[in-house]
Amino acid sequence: MESWREKAEIKQKSILAKIPEQWLLPQALCVMPTTPDSPYLNVTTDAFMTEAGLSPRELAITSKTSIPEILASYESQEVSAEEVVTAFCHRAAISHQTTECLAEIRFADAIAEAKAQDEYLRVHKKLHGPLHGIPVSLKDQFRVKGLESAISYIGWLGRFETAETESLITKQIKELGGIIIAKAKSPSNLHRPVMNPHNRLLSPGGSSGGEGALLASRGSVLGMGTDMGGSIRVPSAYNHLFGLKPSSGRFSYRDLASSLGGKPVVPPVPGPMSASLDNVIHLTQSVIGGIDAWRRDPGLVPLPWRAPLLDEVRAEASTPGKGLCFAAFPGTGDDGIMRLHPPVARGVATAVRAARQAGHRVIDWTPPSHMDAAMIYGGLCFPTTYDIDDALKSGGEPMLGAVENMLKPTEKYRPKDMAEYYELFKKMKKYQEDYADYWESTRALTGTGRPVDGIIAPVAATAAVKHNSAYAFSYAIVYNVLDYSILTVPVTFADKNIDVADPQDAPHSPIDEMSWVPYDADIYHGAPVGVQIVGRRFEEEKVLALGEALSSALKAMTYEKYDCRGWRL
Amino acid sequence: MESWREKAEIKQKSILAKIPEQWLLPQALCVMPTTPDSPYLNVTTDAFMTEAGLSPRELAITSKTSIPEILASYESQEVSAEEVVTAFCHRAAISHQTTECLAEIRFADAIAEAKAQDEYLRVHKKLHGPLHGIPVSLKDQFRVKGLESAISYIGWLGRFETAETESLITKQIKELGGIIIAKAKSPSNLHRPVMNPHNRLLSPGGSSGGEGALLASRGSVLGMGTDMGGSIRVPSAYNHLFGLKPSSGRFSYRDLASSLGGKPVVPPVPGPMSASLDNVIHLTQSVIGGIDAWRRDPGLVPLPWRAPLLDEVRAEASTPGKGLCFAAFPGTGDDGIMRLHPPVARGVATAVRAARQAGHRVIDWTPPSHMDAAMIYGGLCFPTTYDIDDALKSGGEPMLGAVENMLKPTEKYRPKDMAEYYELFKKMKKYQEDYADYWESTRALTGTGRPVDGIIAPVAATAAVKHNSAYAFSYAIVYNVLDYSILTVPVTFADKNIDVADPQDAPHSPIDEMSWVPYDADIYHGAPVGVQIVGRRFEEEKVLALGEALSSALKAMTYEKYDCRGWRL
């Protein structure tokens, strides 16, 4: 019997072995950098991709990541699905070798499927579906026929999925014509740490971090992650991506690999991530609009895709004299629990300023205490670790230090018995009602006749953190407790010339102290900064449209640089 | 300090004290009968109501219980809301004195509100809303300003509700123009047992049993109950009523009085009950179609009222050569766990036969074992009794014998620790998926191109049972575990000349043995028998239309009498 370290090493090698030899890179391009002066910190650029062997044609193909545009190029026969999928597989191979992002590779199958799609188009003179020939990647939790779904657990290796065990989302994506090229990692002993391709000194976040790194390198057009405490939103923000965390019941969680089972914790949800907001909208519309998905998963709510919700926001945003009303935390832009790193504070201030410049209002957001939500979350979600323990034990491996560090501070919130556990559920229900009432109460303040349309909030207190640091997650989990629908929108990048540390900065609260990561302008330079636009339960269509409005506002913004307090420089 | 018995007695008297003196009945009409030869067994008849003091005009008014018809009579000024509400209050007073059905009375306020509605109509020349001047009753769990919501607990007496603590459903009904005349009892030490007005030797079922008795006496036009294990469906069947148990998230449970809190058990749901299916449809459409109720209760799903689902079934049911496809348990019509009493077996067979005569198909239903659902339910719902214990202790009262009898057999299913508790949630999710897959698999068998439209199932193994017997609830709870949408449809009445006990009958299973109630043709004579039409999650509109189809089929049925095995006599 191999030790867990040996098993992990074998798995790592088996992933690399699925990359065609001509796509393998020299060691110099792959090795993890150690200082801000190391070469190849940012591995997303055209120059780097060219050095890594991507041809000009492949570079051109993989630079076009809008699904509607790719579909149009198939219909006009400008390019074949085979060529597109091959180019993205090549780029994904580079991405994996430079960031360690992939858990499973199926390039050969993907290219064969692309050929079949080309043949379908030739014969039927129409596309197979709204994802015809689109390269898609999935977080390792999504089960795919022929691949493993070890999701970090060494003890779970060697269980190969069949058509029967495939996740419903996998089936839906295949039925829509999508081509699954790879599955992406979560942090684990099974794999080496994933690097952030924008700055490889940093982590891409978790747990959909591999997916974030792959998409940031443009190694895939569209990915699916899952989020139970920020796991879509944090890697989206850390990698300059759009990411949708839907409410529970709109995307199927059926037959995903998980050590949680059906436990009554805060619900984990799947959702799309992409560099293109159009792609996130396209995927959501295609999957949610799919006929009768709710008949195949009793956990789904039969809410169809609601175009009017999107159209109303678009009309409101584009009509002179009208406009939307956002909300944001007042003052320094934090929630009173976690102090924001300078680039994040500037990111939020920039988004607020952009919205105002575009004619929207932004009012102060002073909701029920996020500390209450953090305590409910800690108590409800972490008694479940005995299952994680079981899965770790099955492979004889220890818990990751970063995970242990994240779980440890919450120990005191864990319920001692069923009565305390039930009490937490009561508190959660009350918190949800109080937050809903607060939101509704803003109707009197917005000037639009509606309550606040969406909240502009930090995703985490930090931009992408150094490797092996746990991220501070109060900004994410409150909205898991509320089961709200949220879109992450990329805003800016950390800039050592603007985002200067305040020597007087100190943790805001005991929780802040526990996960406090000091800001270092040199190391964080280039780290992406995003914000989350928060909508209420089941407002997916609305937050997608709010994301369009905010993105347009950011693009149209009169460019001025602001420091972390929102002051003009 | 009074003992709990004294406190209960004081409460009983305070209810009676709210009945105007001229409506009080002689003791002879009120006393609980003891044998099938006792007088006044059935207190629903016109003759009895006349003897109890209802005037011919009041009798005529209270015989018209269709909301659309009542609204039309207001608009045509044929009658005033004051007169209608007064007549129903009088009838409710008779109902309470003969069945002990009410927990709270607000006749005086109701009549004053009716006068205000009349004035509104006179001034504005239009109705105040879709429930304008309609007398409505509520199970005691629904909080109403100015009333208590002790819901059976002596320790909870004396807490009077305010506008702030009112249940959202109460507010919705008031906003729609409805007039709340009374709140109805659940079984408790606080109150004497409620009697079934069709046969006062029998119970009206629980826990919305007071509501069932009131509606069966036509003391109200429409009532709201709640259902977590059959508590709407069982009293609906026992009282010859239509009752809708919706899926969780369509009717608001916000701010209902409950000893459950927000615990992650099988979800309790509110739903309407009435002698008229039109009323159940009218109420559902009005409440679900209400603007933005989901903004006021984050537990609601923003699914609007979906008329097309109703219309499709209506079209399918009325088109010659088409038709619906129902399913029913094969053989003797039971689920293999609980043997059916003869009147119930005949009721199901009658419904099946009526559906077939109307041109619909009925195929065999052999789903995943209901025993599995019973074990999941027992384990998930009954660890919660410590909260019931607390509430009982606060009043110094013991647990009701019938409730103790119902809970005791489930003790062995209770989880010993959190790990076992979590395991039950996993099993529940798996059971829901297996049942959904089974349902979907019937697509190949129905001949309609659709899977089975609805299941025709018993509601309980017995018709209304003798006082202080626990009902056998396996037929109800399986669909709480599945969170399905269900309509109860009245079918027939127990008939001692047809429904003859089989001397060889014996319990089917250990569970059956625990709650086995021997059939007695003489005692059960006249007890109502209903069936439940089961739809999948969130198919409320569909099951309402299926109920219309089955009711029409029953009315149109060529009248032949069948015994309990479906054989022609």
UniProtKB/TrEMBL annotation, chains A, B:
The enzyme's E.C. designation: 3.5.1.4
Pfam families, sorted: Amidase
Reaction(s) the record says it catalyses: a monocarboxylic acid amide + H2O = a monocarboxylate + NH4(+)
UniProt cross-references to PROSITE patterns, sorted A to Z: AMIDASES
Classification of source organism: Eukaryota, Fungi, Dikarya, Ascomycota, Pezizomycotina
Transmembrane intervals: none
Top-level taxon: Eukaryota
Record domain Amidase: where: 83-544
Key words, A-Z: Hydrolase
Protein name: amidase
Protein family: Belongs to the amidase family.
Originating organism: Apiospora rasikravindrae
